[in-house]
Amino acid sequence: MSGRLALSLILLAAAVLALAVVYQVRGEAGDFSFTNETYLVEGRFLLVNENNVTVNDYVYVSLPQNTTFQRSYVLSIEPRPIRYDTDEDGNRYAVVLVTAEPGERVWIHVRFRVRVSGYVLYADEDRAMWPSFTVVKKYTTSTGYWDIYNETLIGIAYGEMYSDNPVAAARNIADWIVPRVAYSVNMGRYGSDHALVYRYGRYEIIGDCVEVADMYVTFARILGLPARTAYGFLLTGRTQKMWLNMSTVDKEGEALLSHWGGHMWPQVYVAPWGWVDVDMLDGMAPNFGVYSARHILFGVEETKYYGTALTSSCVPSYMTLQYVEYTFRGETP
Amino acid sequence: MKRLAVLLLAVVAVAAAAPLEAQPQYWIALNFDLRFYPDGTVVVEAKLHPFTVSGRSLYGDPEVEKEMESAWRETAYEILLMFSDNPKTLKFDVLTQFARDDEATVLCDVAGTGRVSRFKGAYVVKLRVYLNTSNYVTRFGEDVYEVKVRDSFTSLDPRSWIDVISFSFESGVELVKYRWEPSFARGPRVEKQGYLLWINYNEQEAPDFYVFVLKLPEFRYVGQPPEIKGSILDARIDERGLAVTVANNSTRAGYAYVVAKTPEGTQARKIWLKGGEVRTLVFPGVRRATEVELWSGDVKLDTYGVGPAAPLVVHIRGFYYLIALLVVFMLLFTVAYRVEARRRIPRAIPVYP
Fold this sequence. Notes:
Chain A is an alpha+beta fold. Chain A has helices at about 1-25, 25-30, 135-140, 150-160, 165-175, 190-195, 210-220, 250; strands at about 30-50, 55-60, 70-80, 85, 90-100, 105-120, 180-185, 195-200, 200-205, 225-235, 240-245, 260-270, 275, 290, 295-300, 315, 320-330.
């Protein structure tokens, strides 16, 4: 009888141990909670040939991307693309050939279906790791907009944000930035050397989402955290229409935000979770690993010294882009 | 061809290229000559010609000329970006900052019609670039290197491209083979001994990368130079993880990489060290490590053995599991013991007849 007792105990102990192991294995997926949403995205772009000659124009159309948290499908693009291509940072885009007589107006229509997994990452600092040498080298370089050699920024980063723990460091950066954002729509791109100003006795980040993202990426890279920017759209609801009239856009100022949601936000790489979104302007909060399903990602900037022009929705060569419109319809019941 | 007087760096808040008012919209034809030398230097001559899409030359237009001259530094950076992701790490000499060459000819397909126009006159920017620190150079073997030349204009803006580009290989440079990316782009129009010429009618035909395997007997590749001189003073496992103390032995500040080699793989940290600074940094959670390396640029500065197996440190999460398991064991044992004890009672010898 005592033999059966011992066997029972061993079996029970094995079951308990197995449960403990299973908990550890499912840890990385279990660190996330998800909110899924599927959108039908319809866009149209008006191009005009303002030249007095006929042009054969290659038009570059940005596409929603496939990532861990987003699946994208091209339903249609009219006129049909002659090619789908990929840029140096791995972003897919379509190339449409348009022939236009002088004065001719051409519409390009796009339809996508995009399934977004918004998530909340419960990142346990005890499990955080620094990445591999290859990843650190590739994603911490200095670029035209992310100047990691600016000694003022280095002083701030090491004085106020530094941590030996990568999750803590990533959070510290966001915590520092959020109360210092002095938001205003910026028609250019200041870069990290000009987006941070000292005025009224404190540092402020002037500009819009681009400047906030650039500052985060620069501070992260200074601290040795791989970081990049993501671009696309941030919706305010499940169904939304956005538009831009290119002839008036530079005069609109903040009014632009009432009908346009083009957006950029930073991502930081923290092992074992990978790229983590940090959209501080979604509710003006640090938001490390808090990513709403209202984001639609069209690409990332990783290595290019001057970023990319593909942040635009539609890039013609000879013709003039006059109007951009997107409609997003949430399809999840 | 590069489109100017339009915001190329699109505003993401606006996410579209917005036209600037009161500026002439014009394009620039881009013709490049690259000459490779046996010591691993390349002389790049950029010949630029501004024009309108109707084909009217703007060469000599005072406003455009002034604008292009003031942008010569940008052109120089675009040249450097043909050979590196980071122009700040490349050594170069400016041979011609900005000059007019009224006799030069610049070729370009003006409006994507498939016909090349010839423009007379060019604004010239000329640099000598040293490839020994380029991250687009890969050593293939004895004196043999792969050299990538990027169309940096396409890289920035997909609608821009180099219209005409020639590659000359001086005596002492052997072109072993060449290719281009993407494969659907067109190859060279002219190929002869020591010379290749691409004429790109549009961006789709233009390669994004021109890739050469070259024999360069006088070339010594060094990679990205170190920013500091440094050493590892200590590396040990303690209650925080792997703690590494490094010193910047030079007077200037710069970045270094600390690489921890552990049985689970490598972890790396990039850190800024002031001149003479000694800093201890921690890889949290690392319980075992074999070796730590200190790098700067592409140069390994120091290696440090972490030493014998680290003392047992109980990870707090593991500790909780252990306690939980012990409690479960104790409960199971208690229950089992009582059940067993009760079952023993009936088996006792009766004391009553």
